């Protein structure tokens, strides 16, 4: 198989991400977003909010992470943080399933590209580097903004409290984008009353 055969096989497989529905709705609340839309929106968040990134953050690497981070949902699906099954979000079972999916999906690429993309995905998942912390923060803030814009969205569906929001999401946003969390926190407090 040529490199182009492998690359197009990967790109065709990645198209399936558009069929993975997330719990989060669009900002207008008209329908649930899909994971492809989520990844695109996060890349745009990174471009627009680059000034909120910490020192030394490479926004190009952040965008790459955000475009790749949810490809595993092709196999695993979306596991919402606030759902009744939210504990599964970080469970050993979900993480193992995501590792298998990453092996399969990135394994479609030519070896060098597969290694590079998988390393970016692993870095995002570990959330230890400045780039990954900023990327993870954006991944957590985008659904918050969609919920604020859509009249509560999944917060209403899953009966989320402000304390749950702060514990499950706010802490992660604050790690990589403290100024963003301070701004969002004010909006969320008003919504939760």
From TrEMBL:
Domain HD as annotated: residue spans: 14-181
UniProt keywords, alphabetically: Hydrolase, Metal-binding
Gene3D superfamilies: Hypothetical protein af1432
InterPro entries associated with the record: HD_domain (IPR006674), YfbR/HDDC2 (IPR039356)
Coiled coil (UniProt feature): none
GO molecular function, one term: metal ion binding
One family name in Pfam for this protein: HD_3
Keyword Hydrolase found: yes
CC annotations in GO: cytoplasm
Protein name (record): HD domain-containing protein
Biological classification of the source: Bacteria, Pseudomonadati, Pseudomonadota, Alphaproteobacteria, Rhodobacterales
């Amino acid at each position: 198989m040529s490199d182009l055969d492998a690359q197009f096989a990967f790109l065709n497989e990645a198209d399936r991400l558009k069929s993975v529905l997330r719990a989060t709705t669009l900002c207008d609340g008209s329908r649930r977003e899909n994971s492809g839309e989520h990844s695109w929106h996060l890349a745009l968040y990174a471009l627009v909010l680059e000034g909120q990134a910490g020192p030394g953050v490479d926004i190009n690497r952040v965008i790459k992470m955000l475009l790749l981070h949810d490809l595993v949902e092709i196999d695993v699906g979306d596991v919402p943080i606030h759902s009744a099954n939210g504990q599964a979000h970080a469970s050993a079972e979900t993480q193992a399933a995501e590792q298998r999916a990453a092996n399969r999906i990135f394994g479609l690429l030519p070896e060098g590209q597969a290694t590079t993309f998988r390393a970016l995905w692993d870095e995002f998942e570990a959330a230890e580097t400045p780039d990954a912390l900023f990327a993870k923060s954006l991944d957590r803030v985008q659904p918050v903004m969609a919920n604020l814009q859509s009249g509560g969205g999944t917060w209403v569906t899953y009966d989320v409290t402000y304390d749950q929001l702060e514990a499950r999401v706010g802490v992660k946003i604050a790690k990589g984008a403290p100024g963003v969390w301070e701004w969002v926190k004010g909006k969320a407090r008003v919504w939760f009353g």
